[in-house]
DNA sequence: ATAGGGTTAG
C-alpha cells in the first residue's frame, strides 16, 4: 500500500486521492514500521554508480550521505533509485521527509494540478510534523492567491501548522481573525500554551472558552500533567466528572498515565472499574494504558490479567510492598501459563512489563518475557532494547545487558544511556566513560539522563576529576542545565572521595542549600567516612529543609545523645513528631524459585524464622573465627535499638536475614541475589565479604544506588560506595 | 483539523 508513494513513476500525481491518502500517513511513526517499497523489488541498478559506491564503502550508512543521495535522485527524476535508496536507508530523519514533501509540492506545481482542500490540509499536516515553515507558508500564499475559501477544517490545519512551526506571531494573528472557532481550534490554542509551559494562560483560556467538549478537557488535563502539575490535573479530572462530561477512551488513557505518575493504585483500580462500566470498547491502546499503569504501580498480576483480556476487577487490602510481592508470585505463574497458551501480545505492553521487572529486580520473570520476545520475533527497537538492557543490569546480569546492547545496532541516546548507566550501576566506571566517549565520537547527542549516568559512573569508580570535567562539558558544550540529579551526583562524587571541603564549595557556588537530596547524599558520605562532626552539621541542614525522611532525625538525636546534649535530643524528637515524620523500614528481599521473600529487621513473620536465626548465629560465629567483627558503631546506624530483644543487639539486619535464607535454600554453587530498598550498611558489607570467602559463594546485592558483587572475600565496589 | 500508549534518570 504505502509502497506506491509519489516517487513511483506513472502513478504519482495522476490520482490526487492516492497522494492524499499517502500523505495522511506521512508521519515518522507510521513509516517507522512500514516497509516502504515492498512489492516492487527492483533488481539493484548497475547504472547508479553513486549508490553502489555509497553502499560499498559504507558511507551510505551515514544519514547525511543518504539524504544527499536521495536529493540527487529525486532532483534528477531518477525515481526508481530514490525508492530503492529510501527503502534501504537505515534511518530517516526530518530532512529525508522534507526532501520528499518538497518534491511533491514541486511536481504538483509543475504539472499544473490544482489541489483541493483535502490535498491542502494534508500538505499542511506534513509541514506541521516536519516543521517545514517555508513550504507551509508557500501553501498559505497559494490559498490566498487563488481565492480559495477557507472552511474551519482548513483554517485549523493552517493554524496548527503555524503553532507547530513555532511561528506564534502568524498563529496568533490567524487565531484572532478566525470567525468560526470549534473545539479543535481551542484544543490547538490551549495545547500551544501548554507545550510552551504557559500553564496559567492555558487554564485561563480553558475557563473562558464556553465549550464543554470532552476533547478540550482532555487537552488541559493532559497538558497540566505533562507540565508536572499532576495534582491540579487530578482536581480537574474530578471536576470533569462533576461537570457531567463523559469520559472517552482518550480521557481514560490520560487518566491512567496520571495514576502511574501519582502511583495511586487504588485510584487506578477505580478508573479501571469505570472503563468497564462505561461500555467503551477496550481497544489495544486502552489495554496497554491499563497494563502500563498496573506495571508502574507494581501490581503485576493485574497487569497480566488485563493482558490476558480477563476483565476481572477486585481490590485487596495489604501494605504496598507486600502486595507487590504477592503480585509477582502470581504474575510469574500467570505469565508462564500464558506463554504456554500462545497469548497475543504487542510490543507496547511487553516494554511496560520489562520495565516493571527491572524496577522490582525480578530476573526470572524478566527472562521469561525476554524469551517471549524472541519467540514472537519482535524486533529489538530502541524502547524494547533499552528496557531489556536496564532489566538485565538491574537484575544483576551485566553480561546479558551487554549482549542485548550488541544486538541493537543503532545510535539512539536512550539505548546508549541505558548501557552507560548499567556499567555505572555495576561500578564499571571506566567502561561507562569509554562507552560514553565513543558515543560522542560517533556524533550521538547526549541528553540530561546520559549525564546522570556518566556522573554516577564517575562517582562509583572514584573518577573525581573526570566527573568534574563532564559536569562542565554538560553545561558549557551541551547547554544542559544541571538538575537535582546532577547536583546530587556531584556531591556524591566528592563525598565518596571524602572531599568534604569541595562539597561545601560546590553547594555554595551552585546555590543549592535548599535541595534535600543534596544534603542526604552528603550525609551518606559522612556515614561512609564516619565523620560524626560533619554528620551533625549536615543533618541540621537537612532538617532545615523540612525533610520527612526519618533517618537524619534518628541519626542526629543519636549524635546528641552520645554528646549528652539531652535537650537537643528532645528537640529533635519533638520536631519529628510535629512534622509527622514516619519511619521507612529497611527491607531486603530475595527470590527463591517462584517466590519473593521479603525481610524487615524486626519482622518475625517468615515461616522459617527460627531456622534462619539459628543458622545466622552459627554463621556469624564461624565468620568471627576468620576475622569478622560486628561491633559497628551503632551511632552511625539508621535504626533505633530495640530494648529487650537479644538478636537485635547482634544487628540482624534485613540483608543478613535474606542472605541466611538464601544460603539454606539454595545449592552451594548458586549465587545469591539480594535486593535492598536502602543503601547497604557497612557492617553488612563486611559480613557479605567474609561470607563469600568462608562459603566460597557468590553474593550479589543490589542496594538503592548500585550493585555489590561479593566473591572470594572481595567486593566489586572495592569498598568504595 | 485537535487531545491518548512502550525505553534510560527521579
UniProtKB/TrEMBL annotation:
PPR repeat boundaries on the chain: 182-216, 283-313, 412-446
The UniProt record lists the keyword Repeat: yes
Keyword Repeat: yes
A GO molecular-function descriptor: RNA binding
InterPro entries: DYW_dom, E_motif, PPR_At4g14850-like_plant, PPR_rpt, TPR-like_helical_dom_sf
Domain DYW: 627-721
Record-linked NCBIfam families: PPR (TIGR00756)
Protein family membership: Belongs to the PPR family. PCMP-H subfamily.
Record protein name field: DYW domain-containing protein
Species of the source: Gossypium tomentosum (Hawaiian cotton)
